[in-house]
Predict the structure.
Amino acid sequence: MRIMGKKIDSKIFDSSNKKTLMKWGDVYNCTKSLIPQALMLIHTVRHVHTQANRSPLLNQDAESAFNSWDVISTSLIEYRSKYIRSQWANVGLLLAVPPQNIIGTFSEDVSFQNHAGIKENNSFALAESYFNGTPKLFEGKKAKERFNYIREHLLPNKSYAHITTPENLMINSKHKRYNEVLVVGKSNVNIHAGFPPTGHITVCGIYHLTTFGNKTDPDDEKLIGQLKVLNPNVPVIRQEVY
């Protein structure tokens, strides 16, 4: 396909990708039922001490917030596993994501620009970043090295337009810190041929991951309390890993 003048060697939006997306339907159903040892998507939240970096998820209920976001970065984890730690932060929200909302899967963090164009009021910036494979800009001595590594080694065809099955993603994610799965937050967006428009993302749990023998971080408890106030009907699920 050719989008914005760039030829993309990808078929993720046509009907040939139907079987792969249907596998993500299994993840959706397992998350809805909170089945132990099943694969689930999580969006992590970190406690920050500055108002400027405060998560929007601490200002309103999570489902309303997600429904207003274009693209959300999540990670695929094995729910209730005692041996696998594969999420970016200790606290996160377990999400039941309709399969037609999935638009990118990667075995490592690919630093997608979720908020591209917002400050500049450029409505095309997000799509350009997605199809052109342009990750976030980095700071520091190794910024260029990290930018080039993502472009050259993690993005097939130099684009974020890539989807594999949940099972393949977990296999390829072994021995990595965490993977990244890009999902569309807004409902009623037509993306994949043969599937309905994007659907509502359901928050199924506030997930807290700790390590055996370590004391709970007070900042984690404060964060969980804030999320619980805004999402009173969502259960808090705690899990220790080795």
Confidence is low (pLDDT under 50) at residues 1-6. The beta strands are 2-3, 6-7, 39-45, 71-78, 91-96, 102-106, 180-184, 202-211, 236-241.
